Amino acid sequence: MKAVRKWKEVPHHPNVYKYETRRGTRYGIRRGFKNSVGKRDEYTRSGFTNWHDAEGELKRFEASLVTGGINPLTHRGVTLNAYFAALVKNREELGVWRPATVIQKKTYYRKHLQEKFGNRPMSKISRSEYQQFIDEKIKSGLAQTTMRTLNSVMQIIMNDAEHNDIIRKNMLRGILINGAKPPKDVSITDEDYAKFMDTAQKLLNKYQLTMLYLLTLGERREELAGLQFRSFKRGTTEGKPYYEITYYVGRTPQQPLGGPLKTPSSYRTNYVTGPIIDYIDYSLQYAKNILTRTHREIGPETFIYLNEKTGMPVHPSNINRNLFQRVKEATGIELRPHMLRHYFATQALQDGLPQMSVMHWLGHKNIDMTNDYTRPTREGSLKVINGMGPILFKNGTAGPDGTK
Fold first, then answer.
1. In which order are the strands placed within the sheet that holds 240-246?
2. What residue stretches are annotated with the Tyr recombinase domain (predicted)?
3. Topology adopted by domain 190-341+357-366
């Protein structure tokens, strides 16, 4: 406080001050404002060697006030609750997080982080304390995917606070998550896949089967639900028909009438040919019949998967209930849309299709994400040993079954 009292205003430069040090004159800024929790606060920076730099920093801060950035949370005692609320508000307003993402982040924060750290100043959360918290969560039996997600929420908060100079450094970065339960198995055997699809052909009508077949191509559920008439463009190449399928919007339980796709790379076009052409033809005409019968408008942006009685777009959650649950009850095989996406990735890469092509087909932003979708299969393992066997066990060496 003694040093602050020696600051002197720089004439004609409001909120810019100068003070003397052993190394000469230095400049600083002091700017009052109300922070995001409605309390009077002050933004203070010092150590500038000239007033131009000090004023530049002041203008940057004032610009953040106008644009609604997170910088106004400058008080070093700001709590995790206050910063998280400001972060969510900022991400929503900028459209960085979709409604589904906001709900996920809030749920994980409220369920796992709020009670322990919510009212704590961010600068007072130590690495050892947070590591102990993570270890206790693991001991409670939380799955690895849950642990990674809740930690990612904390890291997003702390990294953003570091970026905005609310904390000096994110001391929680690189925390260890060891010993958590492995993620739930989402692999499908070839036998289960064949049995599930055979049963589906007996239980579902052709309109419903088309939805299932499109999901086998690796679409996300929200992408299937968001398919519109403009999504399909029919063409011919070398005398054979094909469909160009373009993904424009996604429909989720949070945005049942349509919203942005999951990531920028999700906006893509795939091409299909073969037996599915007939199913898509049928599905498009069937959707038109439903809309005509229910006196609803048919246009390029009209969704094609509808409630057959009302003509309204089928709710995204009903895809699981109307398709997968029915077949599960008949077969005992639990299958979900995302498992089909994993199955597609596994089979495509296992069969030697180019990684980049599979990545773009699935709408992934990088190869690592596509590779993470693959799962080891018995068929894949047999294909490896059948290919490597002649190399490994040549010249009369005993094979894996003991024979020569």
1. 232-237, 240-246, 269-273
2. 183-386
3. hpI Integrase; Chain A (1.10.443)
The answer to whether 177 and 151 have CB atoms below 8 angstroms apart is yes
pLDDT band at 394 (very low <50, low <70, confident <90, very high): low
Closest CA to 195 of 335, 377, 338: 335
CA dihedral 126, 127, 131, 133 (to 10 degrees): 20
What is this structure's pTM?
Answer: 0.67
Please say whether the beta carbons of 361 and 272 come within 8 A: no
Mean pLDDT of 287-294: 97
Q: Which of 57, 42, 89 lies closest to 70 in space, CA to CA?
A: 89
Architecture of domain 80-163: Orthogonal Bundle (1.10)
Q: What is the dihedral of CA 277, 311, 321, 348, to 10 degrees?
A: 20
Q: What is the domain class of 2-67 according to CATH?
A: alpha beta
Q: Delimit the CATH 1.10.150 region(s) of the chain.
A: 80-163
Which of 72-76, 236-240, 251-255, 348-352 has the lowest average pLDDT? 72-76
Which DSSP helix (H) or strand (E) runs through 242?
Answer: strand 240-246
- The answer on pLDDT for 167 being more than 90 is no
Least confident residue range of 2-16, 200-214, 371-385: 371-385
Residues of the chain with CATH 3.30.160: 2-67
Compute φ and ψ for 122, nearest 5 degrees: -60, -35
